[in-house]
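Hey all, quick one. A colleague (J.T.) asked me to put the zinc ion job into the tracker so the inputs and the structure tokens live in one place instead of scattered across chat threads. No bug as far as I know, just bookkeeping. Sequence used:
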Amino acid sequence: MGDCPGLIVLQPVLHNNIWGGRRLAEFGYELPDGPVGECWGISAHPHGDCVVAAGPYAGMTLSQLWSEHHELFAGAEGDRFPLLVKVLDACDDLSIQVHPDDAYAAEHEGGSLGKHECWYVLDAHSHGQIIVGQRAKSREDFALLVEENRWHDMENLVPIKAGDFFDIKPGTVHAILGGTMILETQQSSDVTYRVYDYERRQADGSLRELHLQQAMDVIDYAATAPVTGEVTAPEVDGITQLMSCEYFDVLRVRVHRDAPVVLPQPHPFMNLSVIEGSGAVETEAGRWQLAKGNHLVAPCGCGDLRLSGEMTLICSYVPTKEG
Ligand code: ZN
């Protein structure tokens, strides 16, 4: 008891997108009018800085907490909260796009971070598909396919179902296609190079900008495209490690009535997002009710997270650097 910090519950920021729908209401969010594509559930990015919903820091933004109460993230490096967690409702296809890595973004995007992202599929059509990877082996090949409008020869389509997971490294051509809901964990970056947008017009009749030159600069032509998003990692006491890279580790945590989960939290911070069901989380500092659509940050030193109820969460944290 005593000094143990409580959990930080965040208010999500909702964004209108031309490819969005209305299904984020299923997560309990109050939607603005029009198509809504993105819920930024855990974000300190200037394009959507989440406000703390309750507790001693209520009303502060996550970016303010990072700079003014860094003890909550003790040991975390960098000048900004490094991760961004979104829930996406793709009613229509997203543009075919690619993101830069840190080095390219720092040089060409005013010091922005690059964008390594990953997707946990929440829901998909029965014949759902997604684009991850491309087939051109060189910049010249790619330019030719684009010039000849041969998108189907370029894109690597993968069948998807709920529960699949994809690691989208910088330089990987990708697109979430209509009828898909996804939880995305990514570096806190908003740099997207659009390769193709289906000649789709915005509400004002204009086309969204494409960024072919930058895209061709950053595409990894040697990468192997995946054929499936099936999760093969083992589940141990309700916890499955979905991926680990230098920027983030991502876990799926499944809690059942007869199988509560104790999730250790030894990291500078841990993000938690409830994607299904409801329950509660208890720490030495208190108890919080949880339901689908809730997003929270477990700060440094909060101790074990004791999860109960019937629910599934996606959690992420920045791995400790070795050596
Ligand atoms: Zn992306």
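Adding what we noticed when we looked at it: The chain has a mean pLDDT of 95. The pocket of zinc ion is lined by residues 97, 99, 117, 174 (CB under 6 Å).
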